[in-house]
Amino acid sequence: MDEWRIGDVLITRILEMCEPLRTPSEWFPDSTEEAIRPHLHWLVPRSLSPATGRIILPIQSYLVRTRHHTILVDGCVGNNKSCKDFAHWHDRNDYTFLDRLATAGVAPEQLDYVLCTHLHADHCGWNTRLVSGRWVPTFPNARYIIARREFEAARAASGGPEDRTYEENVLPIVEAGRAVLVEMDHAIDDEVWLQPTPGHTPGHVAIRVRSRGVEAVFSGDIMHWPMQCIHPEWNFRYDADPDHAYRTRRAFLEACSDSGHLVMTSHFPLPSVGTITRRQSSFWFDDYQSP
Questions:
Q1: What domains are defined for the chain?
Q2: Mean pLDDT, residues 60-89
Q3: How many other CB atoms sit within 10 Å of the CB of residue 110?
Q4: Which of 70, 173, 205, 283 has the lowest CB atom count within 10 Å?
Q5: Cα 117–119–123 angle (5° rounding)?
């Protein structure tokens, strides 16, 4: 399942890659083998590689077509980018992402908006591409919507030799006049708006979509793995503010379990889309089942 309808809104997955990356303990310092063991029957092989024990992490965007606009939620890793922490993300030359966007029937110049849940390397890489030695907006007619608080935090952290995300993925769209800095609850129109969900990064936002009484939410990196529904207290190693990330995640899970809204995750095992239900004192992620 690569497409979903939310009322009149059509959502299409644009998958860039899906590979084993790190072990649970490397990414979730509070996780334990004892807590994971009872869940191996469903974690393996979709979420944990049986060969390496590493978490299989999709890197993907979502194309959102409303009555008014054509929108991309997040921008994956991209090409020619500097990613020292993940060798196979570094200096890629792979056009799978753009090919899949074309297969969905959308050319880069047709996008009206790019919505950035946050500004980590695997969520904003295709913001730009390298043309004749210069970084230029991949989507030349789009307005790139970024929470002002997220932009300011990314700019303040820029300049280091190990992380060039701001210089390669963000600054060029600002210089091209395509970046629009907004408050964390900004509304694009009557069907799409931002929801403040800080913690993983200072200005992290979820993206909400509602049409004809049906609602979905793009969770970004509020959570990275279904085990965080069972154990919301397991923070991701790269959460900027772990305590705030936990509070945000817990509140998000509670709200989704009460509403039944469809949750479109960034990194859960494919199909990555489902609903949240309560399980005693914690929660459970149910994969989407087509009607």
A1: 9-287 (3.60.15.10)
A2: 94
A3: 12
A4: 70
A5: 70
